[in-house]
Amino acid sequence: MKLLKPYWKGYKFDLMIAILMVVISSVAMLLQPTLLSNIVQAITDDNLNKVNQIGLQLLILAVIGLVAGIVNTIFAARASQGMAADVRESAYRKIQTFSFANIEKFSVGNLVVRLTNDVTQIQNVLMLVLQPLMRMPILFIGGFILAVRSIPQLWWIILVMVILVGSVAYYVATHIGKKFGRIQGLIDKVNNKVKENLQGVRVVKSFNQEKSEEERFTNVSDELKDVNIEIGYFFAMVMPAFMFIGQGLMVVAIYLVGNMVDTDPGLLAQVTGFTNYIMIIMNAIIVGGMMLSFATRALVSMGRIQEIMTTEAELSYREDGQKITDGRVAFDNVSFTYDGEEKPTLKNISFTTESGQMIGIVGATGSGKSTLAQLIPRIYDPTSGSVKIGGVDLKTVDESSLRDAVAFVQQKATLFSGTIADNFRQGLATADESDMKRAADIAQASEFIEQYDDKYNHVVEERSANYSGGQKQRLSIARGVIASPKILILDDSTSALDARSEKLVKEALDEQLNETTTFIIAEKVSSVINADNIIVLDEGKLVAYGPHSELLETSPVYREIYETQEAKEVRHDDK
Ligand SMILES: Nc1ncnc2c1ncn2[C@@H]1O[C@H](COP(=O)(O)OP(=O)(O)OP(=O)(O)O)[C@@H](O)[C@H]1O
Description:
Layout: H1 5-8, H2 12-44, H3 48-96, H4 100-106, H5 108-150, H6 155-199, H7 201-206, H8 210-261, H9 267-310, E1 329-336, E2 346-353, E3 358-363, H10 369-375, E4 384-389, E5 392-393, H11 399-405, E6 406-409, E7 418-419, H12 420-427, H13 433-442, H14 446-449, E8 459-460, H15 469-481, E9 487-491, H16 499-512, E10 517-521, E11 533-538, E12 541-546, H17 548-554, H18 556-574
Parallel strand pairs: 3-10, 3-11, 6-9, 9-10
Antiparallel strand pairs: 1-2, 1-4, 4-5, 7-8, 11-12
Helix pairs in contact: 2-3, 2-5, 2-9, 3-5, 5-6, 5-9, 6-8, 6-9, 8-9, 12-15, 13-15, 17-18
Adenosine-5'-triphosphate binds at residues 338, 341, 345, 363, 365-371.
């Protein structure tokens, strides 16, 4: 409930009207049995005038109840939809502040379920609270008082019913809550499975994995079905139990009243009211119990959203952060260990670059090249040591200054659905056509963009499915360079380009972005042979740093990588 505190204030009016209408419709409902008793009495007394009068009153009550019910639904829907949307948007905003490590911990699929399914649970329960749940105590207390007032001698029957029905309802609410908790977890699993499968649909098909993927999905889906069925069975047994208790006690009440009528004939008219009130009380407890069990499901969901809201971003930025003014980069004794891993991925790395230099990063697979690069835009903080850009320690940097200074182009180009221009504007919000043309020229993307009639307004479909791997990489490089960042990182991001295009991109970068410090992570040493300096990584250690010619002389590791690759290329050319 703490979760909703900041939001309800914006919906005070809607909430007040919804609650007022609940009270009115509940009171209208409570008055009906008394009027029914009176009408039975009037019929017994043969008083037609009174019968008509009470009939009219009953009609008016029914109309009031109906109108109050409709108005309640309208305002309850406005408040619950509005509050749920606010919760969803706040949680989304909060997720935007998360670091990469935060998102990895939750997992993307899990966060999606929290923002969709869990928020819907909260919305549903708000609607329930503003309708049946709020009505329950009014009907229960009112029904209790009016039932005792109509036949005071039978107060104990009501008490027995409250205890019996209340105990069953309590049992249901507490037991079912746990199962609802499991359901949310299983929905996460189903969602993750679907996401993984659809994102990797090409792999699934090319490796003929449809059957085994289907099996894995069916297992999770069946587990979800089983828990849902268990809940269904539970309710299937509980409802008749409630009915049995209520109707059994009603039979007892009627039997006892039947005996009492001999000595007190006035009781006959009261039986109608009494039995009706018993039904109202019983319904209030049953509905209340059911609603409470749904509410426990929403409480689980609230807990899951609250977890997002209270998660501290693993990386925080200072309000008075320092601005970056140039593209020098300095690593000072940097070590880095991934969360949950025992061994460090990077060990005591130190190097410095000047602004505008081109730096190659080479090393075997898994040697830590991407990890090192990720420390520059502060995707992670080093476990020890410091990373500085333009002399500013990234722990004290201003966030937007860092974002403006560093552009990171990843190997797996991620474009967003929309148009090419939309994607370019993520790199530079104010980009006009000439900015786009310059960036596209550098990235060697103009040659295919120019062929589209709508050029930069050409559509990018979901998951950029309408572009080839190489085109995606070019567009993503263009987005990276469009704002002329102080630092540009290309993480193996020309891997899908042919040798000629790759060469042209590098030349264009050299000419057009000579102020930009460019890091190029490359599988092939030949791609970075002309770099000012090359970082050579071996099992997380920086084993050499310098220009190609110097490293060939001084670094056995570098020489070995270079010579092995050279030999491979010669063999390849000979074929
Ligand atoms: N998010 C992560 N959590 C835990 N370990 C990770 C994570 N990312 C990478 N690693 C591990 O860190 C090591 C270095 O990975 P990294 O991606 O930096 O290597 P790389 O040199 O870029 O490799 P490649 O050339 O294959 O891209 C690997 O052993 C990898 O398993």
